[in-house]
Design a protein that fits this description.
Aminopeptidase, 174 residues, 7-stranded mixed sheet, 40% helix, 5 helices
């Protein structure tokens, strides 16, 4: 699928906020996760903090969005590992960046966009001189995709969120 991939800009904030509201709510519904509006807002705010960090000069964070005809269809970020990843990945979280915030608008899912964005992120990391990356996921549907693309996770936190709801971490050399 043809789309334009670019770094986010300050002028994208309103569109990104709406995009995250749609895709995060859809993801939680699809996963059967009941969240309050406040919890959804916290998740959106977390993404928007990463977006703002990517706009700072010399930031290690890159936040990208894929567009078709000016409509955001997907996002992906490349950023320093968060505390959660550092806590569970230990020394593997050193000298790497984390691929995160890969969200795809529901009507564009299952069209290979996520695989394209992952490939772009890996190439970006190679160009920056990184030898590996981290990725984590607490969403069951996303975990299936990541296992297909990345293989068996390095760490599985069994029943982390609730019975049958694991959290998975991957470390991949590139």
């Amino acid at each position: 699928m043809d789309f334009k991939l670019r770094n986010v800009q300050a002028s994208d904030m309103k569109k990104l906020n709406s995009f995250f509201d749609e895709v995060i709510e859809h993801t939680l519904l699809k996963e059967g996760i009941a969240c309050s509006q406040e919890e959804i807002e916290e998740e959106i705010n977390d993404k928007m903090i990463k977006v703002k960090d990517s706009l700072k000069e010399n930031s290690l964070t890159a936040f990208l969005m894929a567009e078709i005809d000016g409509v955001i269809i997907a996002t992906i970020s490349i950023n320093p590992p968060g505390e959660f990843s550092k806590q569970h990945m230990g020394s593997k979280a050193e000298n790497v960046l984390e691929i995160a915030s890969l969200y795809i608008k529901p009507s564009y899912q299952s069209k290979g966009i996520g695989k394209q964005l992952l490939s772009y992120a890996v190439e970006d990391l190679k160009a920056r001189g990184y030898k590996g990356f981290l990725l984590d996921s607490g969403y069951k549907e996303a975990q299936k995709v990541w296992q297909h693309l990345l293989g068996k996770p390095d760490i599985v936190l069994k029943d982390f969120w609730e019975a049958g709801a694991d959290h998975m971490f991957w470390y991949k050399e590139i």
